[in-house]
Specification:
By secondary structure, this protein is mainly β. It has one domain. 10% of the residues lie in helices and 40% in strands. It contains two helices and ten strands, in the order βαβββββββββα. It has a seven-stranded antiparallel beta sheet, covered by helices on one side. The longest helix has 10 residues.
């Protein structure tokens, strides 16, 4: 009997790195543009989930709509990702949202046949599952999970479910306290 050794690697597929720019006032020189309220309203209307936007963001920060790209408001929106930048255009925090239940995650699965030096790749679709690892933090009475970036004092991933929406916030620049303050202001 011959044995074939296989290894399986699973990775979540990343979304595109393209930008969607909203209208900008003529005196603004930033490479990143504030998402205007009209576009944001259209995104909220077409989202298949309740979209939350932070109210506690410094006024000089700008926001880009990272996903969906390109923005097509004639189709339902399954997932939204917002990126926030400070006034020096440094990336500060990203917030991703989608339905907590009934959302499908696409993963790329690669199988390696070591003996025959071959690999096969396929896309697998699974139901989204909330990751319960990390420190428990209360956000306005909601249980959230925080996972820091290794031994760093800044940043990490903060995730929770609010009114049927899965929300994930990540930052490498902000301390947990500031991330929590932004998270509590989502409305």
């Amino acid at each position: 009997m011959r044995r074939i050794f296989c290894a399986v690697i699973v990775a979540v597929m990343a979304s595109t790195s393209s930008l969607v720019h909203a209208e900008v006032s003529p005196n603004q020189t930033s490479n990143y543009h504030k998402l205007d309220s009209t576009t944001l309203g259209k995104v909220k209307q077409k989202s298949k989930f309740k979209l939350f936007v932070p109210k506690s963001i410094p006024t000089k920060w700008t926001v880009e709509l990272k996903y969906p790209y390109p923005l097509d408001i004639t189709k339902p929106i399954q997932k939204v990702r917002l990126h926030y930048f400070d006034d020096a255009e440094n990336y500060m925090v990203g917030i991703e949202q989608h339905k907590a239940i009934g959302y499908k995650v696409k993963k790329e699965q690669i199988e390696f046949d070591v003996r025959n030096k071959k690999s096969t790749k396929k896309i697998v679709e699974e139901d989204f599952k909330f990751d319960t690892q990390g420190e428990i933090i209360k956000l306005n009475g909601i249980e959230a999970r925080f996972t820091p970036w290794g031994d760093h004092t800044l940043g990490g991933i903060l995730r929770w479910v609010q009114d049927g929406t899965y929300i994930e916030m990540e930052s490498t620049q902000l301390p947990k306290k500031d991330m929590t303050k932004i998270a509590e202001s989502l409305g």
